[in-house]
Amino acid sequence: MFSTAIYSINTKISILSSYMPIQLIGNILLLAPLSFFAAVFSSRFAKLGSIFLLVFCSSLTIESLQLILSFFYLGNRTFDVNDLILNSMGTLVGWAFFKFLNIFFNQEITVIRQ
Q1: Which of 15, 58, 86, 99 is 20 to 30 A removed from 51 (C-alpha atoms)?
Q2: pTM
Q3: Closest to 66 in 3D by CA, of 74, 56, 58
Q4: pLDDT tens profile 66-99
């Protein structure tokens, strides 16, 4: 018997409230390091708008790859708009951490960027 791949796109934001805390925290923190290190290593990404675009596009790429892999029977993954939202929220965590450390280590960050 042939197995069928289940590929789908979840666009129901309402199910976000049913996520377990570990799912919420994990998805928020998944790309927070990307926003932090991008801001540390490049002044271009020190602004919230540019870093948000970077993280959003990275999250969109991850979700799209999950859908493509599922389409080719390489896993039962789902494109989930909730993951996209939570990953993008992680931008604020990484960026806020960068802004906090930048207060105390401004000279060191400037040296790293050179």
Answers
A1: 15
A2: 0.84
A3: 74
A4: 888 887 777 777 888 999 999 999 999 999 999 9
